[in-house]
Write a structure and sequence with these properties.
Blueprint (H helix, E strand, L loop, with lengths): L1 H5 L4 H22 L4 H6 L17 H20 L7 H27 L5 H26 L17 E6 L8 E6 L5 E8 L11 E8 L2 E6 L7 H4 L2
Parallel strand pairs: 3-5
Antiparallel strand pairs: 1-2, 1-4, 2-3, 4-5
């Protein structure tokens, strides 16, 4: 088997597998020292999720072409799960699939016709296998990998959501405390005043947040049962 790997037609696949092993060892060693190499590498990967806006006054068509190219590249990287799974893991998946697929193809061809294909030809099906394995394997990894979550939620997202007054009666210039649940099912306690200056909102009232001024939110009575907090969380 070792001699089969060293044949000139198979060297590119052997190198791919060797690189895969090397990257895996570097990641393991980094973890022993408390350093995730894959996270360090991801910091140098540009964010392609935004449109590429280029300020070139001479040719507006060139701007459009560059923006379209950036969008296409973003779609390709997203399809390959870049940004969802660390790039080094995706690279390991690709190198593994590419190397094994290439050796498998060469083994089948050698068993059938007695000779190996040139590396360039054998690399084509191996490349296709590597790309689709990155797609499928990366998608699976994205499902099982722990995701970084944060409790930091923009208060702007509170507008349009419902809340329940839990402490005090809300009047103009006399806010009461309300409990609000965000899109991530996390509870927040906010200060609420009635949007109508003549209105009073007693404790226990379900309200709809309509605007914000500083640290105070303004609300109206929630007259739609389907928007009640308990209905939204069910």
């Amino acid at each position: 088997m070792f001699d089969f790997l060293l044949l000139p037609q198979n060297q590119v696949f052997a190198i791919a597998l060797a690189l895969m092993v090397g990257i895996a060892l570097v990641e393991i060693v980094g973890m022993l020292f408390g350093l995730a190499i894959s996270q360090v590498v991801d910091q140098f990967i540009p964010d392609f999720d935004v449109d590429m806006d280029v300020d070139i006054d001479a040719d507006a068509d060139l701007d459009a072409d560059l923006s379209a190219s950036g969008t296409t590249l973003s779609h390709i990287l997203s399809w390959l799960n870049v940004g969802k799974v660390p790039v080094l893991i995706l690279l390991v998946i690709f190198l593994t699939a590419f190397g094994l697929a290439g050796l498998f193809v060469q083994r089948i061809v050698a068993g059938s016709v007695g000779v190996l294909m040139p590396a360039v030809i054998a690399a084509l099906p191996a490349l296709i296998a590597g790309i689709f394995t990155v797609r499928v394997g990366g998608k699976a990894m994205a499902q099982i990998m722990p995701k970084e979550e944060t409790s930091a939620v923009s208060e702007k997202t509170f507008i349009g959501r419902t809340a329940t007054l839990v402490l005090g009666n809300a009047k103009r210039d006399n806010p009461a405390q309300a409990k609000l649940e965000d899109a991530f099912k996390q509870s927040h306690y906010i200060l609420v005043e009635p949007d109508n200056a003549e209105e009073s909102l007693p404790e226990g009232t379900d309200v709809l947040i309509v605007r914000q001024e500083g640290t105070v939110f303004f609300a109206i009575k929630n007259t739609h049962p389907s928007l009640a907090p308990e209905a939204r969380s069910s």
